[in-house]
Write a structure and sequence with these properties.
Layout (H helix, E strand, L loop, with lengths): L5 E2 L2 H9 L7 H34 L3 H29 L2 H19 L4 H29 L11 H21 L6 H23 L4 H6 L3 H12 L4 E2 L28 H23 L2 H9 L3 H29 L1 H22 L5 H17 L1 H12 L2 H33 L1 H8 L1 H12 L35
Parallel strand pairs: 1-2
Helix pairs in contact: 2-3, 2-5, 2-6, 2-7, 3-5, 3-16, 4-5, 4-7, 5-15, 5-16, 6-7, 6-12, 10-15, 10-16, 10-18, 11-12, 11-14, 12-13, 12-14, 13-14, 13-15, 13-17, 13-18, 15-16, 16-17
Length: 481
């Protein structure tokens, strides 16, 4: 009879998970359910975009009110990404995800049944809170669910994002065919609430707490129980005897400890993931804002043709998102980000030089090049690098800070570049924006860290290699994955 593996701490949990090589069985269900929250985040953003025109006509919204609505969710995410990371560090990975779904349901229903701008905005506030919390925590949980050999699968979140956006466009087109009129925006926003409610039930039933987080809190019995439920690994808890004969949990990490991310070996990792996240958010939301304009130019002025055109562009994003896992595996996350930024830079320069003058084929291919390079490279990699670069005690905080920086880029893209467009015109706006991916590419080439190109896990590093130890931690305590 084979001897049951013993678990003395987080390092043993990580070793057992990494030994699985791939995500199978019950683990695959929980893995995709965690991804479901990212699908919802993208869907909720697309739901507003698809119905914004009819909403504007029905409620007679001003340009300022439109700007406030579109930027509310990413702005709230700036605040609640680190809050989500803090919650995940304190109370576990799963409870914040469930809380986020409750906010998402409430926000979608409030907006869908609203009769004035203020109520719609309050609904988007709740959606923004859900978006900020969910994205930070889901990536941390996925990293701890995933064996190291399959870490490239984290990049699939980008394909999930575009699938959600395309799905919402398909649904909007279906609502349009049902002749719901200007109320189409209510159906679009309300459908996000239905998805959130279904996810809330499924995640409550099937999500299992991260074994690594449980072990980091000294709850080894619960950790091995989670291992058994997720992976079918039959391990036994065997805590080391401490000075008092008891296992000592890792010290709690709070928002006040965010400075740890900018010290020691963590500094270049935080810089790299933050720059990639900032750059991709800024370039996507700046150019994404004009994709409907480009779509109308290419496919015609009707709602159906413009929607189908946007679906075509998003389909390219799905292809790029799926390719990002392959690119990350072949080149590493850092270099695939550099190449992606480079392709985006070339696409933006050509769009700026030829906008309004190029043949339709060229006008179509350049946005395709932009989306493909974005989604296959930096669009996915910023959050993946963050999730893989930190140990468990600061991972959720690290992904939260990176998500906050990315949301800041989204707000800049939504607010600043429309102003540049009004001052310089659309063509020159593309040329100005090309500076963003250029700086992103140079940063990726300058910072050499890549979690997929090192044999050492953050959990295996010694405290003096990763920066200052946490307050109250022991040098002998290995940081958790």
């Amino acid at each position: 009879m084979a001897q049951r593996p013993s678990v003395k701490g987080v390092a043993d949990i990580v070793a057992l998970i990494d030994g699985m090589r791939t995500v199978t069985g019950r683990a695959r269900i929980t893995w995709y359910l965690a991804f479901g929250g990212l699908f919802l985040d993208a869907y909720a953003n697309a739901a507003l975009s698809a119905g914004l025109g009819p909403m504007t006509d029905q409620m007679h919204l001003s340009s300022t009110q439109i700007s406030v609505l579109t930027a509310t969710a990413p702005f709230l995410a700036i605040l609640f990404n680190p809050v989500g990371g803090w919650l995940a560090t304190r109370i576990g990975r799963v409870p914040p995800l469930l809380i986020a779904k409750v906010f998402a349901v409430a926000g979608a229903l409030l907006a869908a049944f609203s009769g004035d701008f203020t109520t719609v905005w309050l609904g988007r506030v709740l959606v923004g809170v859900a978006y900020g919390v969910d994205f930070a925590v889901a990536m941390a949980l996925l990293a701890e669910y995933t064996p190291k050999a399959s870490s490239g699968r984290l990049n699939l979140w980008q394909a999930v994002w575009y699938c959600a956006t395309t799905g919402n466009l398909v649904l909007a087109l279906g609502f349009y065919q049902l002749d719901v009129g200007q109320d189409i925006w209510r159906w679009s926003l309300g459908s996000a609430g239905v998805i959130a409610a279904v996810l809330l039930v499924l995640q409550w039933l099937f999500l299992v707490e991260s074994p690594a987080w449980l072990a980091s809190k000294g709850r080894l019995e619960d950790a091995v129980r989670s291992l058994r439920r997720i992976y079918g690994i039959d391990a036994v808890a065997a805590p080391d005897a401490g000075a008092a004969g008891e296992h000592t949990a890792a010290p709690a990490v709070g928002l006040r400890d965010a400075g740890l991310l900018f010290k020691g070996a963590y500094l270049p990792r935080t810089v790299l993931s933050s720059v990639i996240s900032l750059g991709q958010g800024l370039q996507y939301f700046a150019v994404g804002w004009y994709l409907p304009v480009i779509s109308l130019t290419i496919f015609g002025e009707s709602f159906e043709k413009a929607t189908i055109g946007s679906m075509v562009f998003n389909a390219v994003g799905i292809v790029g998102g799926l390719a990002s896992a392959w690119c990350g595996r072949r080149m590493g996350l850092r270099l695939s980000s550099a190449w992606g930024f480079g392709g985006v830079c070339v696409a933006l320069v050509l769009m700026g030089l030829t906008f309004g003058k190029a043949p339709l084929v060229v006008a179509f291919c350049l946005p395709v090049l932009f989306i493909l390079c974005h989604s296959a490279g930096p669009g996915a990699n910023g959050k993946s690098i963050a999730a893989l670069s930190y140990s468990s005690d600061v991972r959720a905080l690290g992904t939260g800070v990176t998500g906050m920086v990315g949301s800041f880029g989204s707000v800049i893209g939504l607010y600043v570049f429309p102003q540049i467009k009004d001052a310089l015109g659309l063509a020159h706006t593309f040329l100005v924006l090309a500076v963003v991916p250029l700086l992103g590419m140079l940063t990726c080439l300058a910072v050499k860290w890549d979690p997929t190109r090192t044999d050492a896990s953050p959990d295996d590093e010694q405290p003096d290699e990763q920066g200052p130890a946490l307050p109250g931690s022991s040098p002998a305590a290995a940081p958790a994955r």
